[in-house]
Amino acid sequence: MKQKAHQILKWSEHYLKTDMVYLTRGGFWLTVGQGTSSLLSLILATAFAHFISKEVYGNYKYILSLTGMFSMFSLTGIGTALVRSIAKGYDGTLRYNFWLNIRWSIIIFLGSLVSSLYYFYNDNYTLGASFLIIGSFSPFMTSASLHGAYLSGKKDFRRSSLYNIYKRIVPTVALLGTMMLSNNVIVLVLVYFASNTSIILYYYLKTLRAYHIDKNAPIDPDNLHYAKHLSLMNILSGIADKIDSVLVFHYFGAASLSVYTFSTAIPEQIIGWIKNINTLALPKFTGQEKGIVKKELWAKFSRFFIVLIAIFLAYYVSAPYIYKYAFPNYLESVKYSQLYSVMIILTASTLNMIFLQAHKAIKENYIINIFSSTCRISLVTILIINYGITGAIIGQLLAKAMAGTLSFILVKRF
User: Fold this and answer.
1) Alpha carbon distances (Å) from 168 to 43, 98, 342
2) What is the pTM for the complete model shown?
């Protein structure tokens, strides 16, 4: 049966113009991992919706969003650069990048410390204590999480997916137990960061042992240079990713941020499934000639686009029923979620970005990151102030469509 399946996949490659054996083998484990992650996220979101008030949840999400913005000033491109280095055989880059990222994470620590002092000064002890917790744990959590990029570079999707499942189970169980006992933001933040940091560090060390990565393993001399470029590009895009939550919280309060968060939650989970294609594509594109990949890219995009339209339509129709049973306290999020689900279709353009990253198109990556992030920040800011949650979603959709159009132009010229 295995041999027959292999023959069918090889036969289908003639028509689909894609390495279906690689896609199926890697995609299976990524799907298992993503499926488990989505299920755990659904369970956690349902628990938040039932046990935690909108005000508390809004504050919790605001804290995580600000943390994400601080992290953009560290070495955020190190994961993508690491995938490329590992795909080229530089296994020692994982150890090197761990300590490198610890040093660069001083920015996260200082940002959290300043925020903490600001909120303590203004008698907001909840946010003050929360940011102290974040500054203490984040450098270790982000550095240890680089083992995921290492496994992607090795195309070890089975191990990566299994590790990701275990890494999601522990924090989910910890948060579920906490919600049963406490409705305190500080406690929720502490449990989130402590449980995630502990389990991620464990699997970082486990990866080192599994691949016997010692201090003498080869290090990519070009890794830091490329990581710095990617990180510089990511500053604006990172701010753009979080600014919608910060602005909604600032102008409309914690309860509105809760409604907005739940409106994007399920579409983002679906997009997470779709992005498994990116995980498969980056090491594959890196190992192929640029001309060959570019020649087949349009055909891959066309088929990908049709599939995404079908997924969008299925979610749009089913959204009211999902919220009715899973999130009955957030039924006002349905209309916003249906609108935001258009993002599923627009995700097709990420194939272009993966192509440019795989072939180290530094100038093109700068152009698209600066353009898309500037558009997103500008549109989201203006539209949130004038139209609230609806404006936040429309701003993101317009920015994504504009960035997607630019990515086609850049790939064509590269």
Assistant:
1) 12, 21, 27
2) 0.72
